[in-house]
Amino acid sequence: xxxxxxxxxxxxxxEQEEVPVIPTSCTTSPISSGMRQESVNCGEDQxxxxxxxxxxxxLQDKQLxxxxxxxxxxxxxxxxxxAEFAGPGSAVGEVFxxxxxxxxxxxNLELIYPESPDDRQRAYLIRRQWVRLxxxxxEHPDPLKxxxxxxxxxxxxxDGDTIARLPDEAFALLVGVLPHTVRKVRNSxxxx
Length: 192
What we know:
45% of the residues lie in helices and 16% in strands.
């Protein structure tokens, strides 16, 4: 009888707890910064959700993730009236990105978990640098120049195919211009 009660208590405890399970199909390998490189881009949820929806759920659940610093990748976070770019090494999630309404992976995106407080702090600093870079571009008074500068920044970091797949709207929301302004700049670049 006691063992039966014990089993019931254990079952009840496990049923009430929400224990996050990291999928076993993810790979883990050390990288030089000391972070454990554990991809969170895989799992059972992706069978029903698109990768973008899965990432958005993680952000809205206030998980802290880091854009893999070892890849040319990033994440455009659509907010209500603007967008933010989180490049390699940037922190995403927690309270900063709960208001994200949509995400757009750039390049071969891989998000990893921070392993230490130092990793977290480094990722926050890198995110702040990306925000500052975008802010500097946004402060230019000419919308055409803003659109041109953000495209140039991306061209310096990503290949032409990756940039071509990004919608005008994404660039426009990053620097506060209209999508047709970005299209105009892209057309002038392709003509030259």
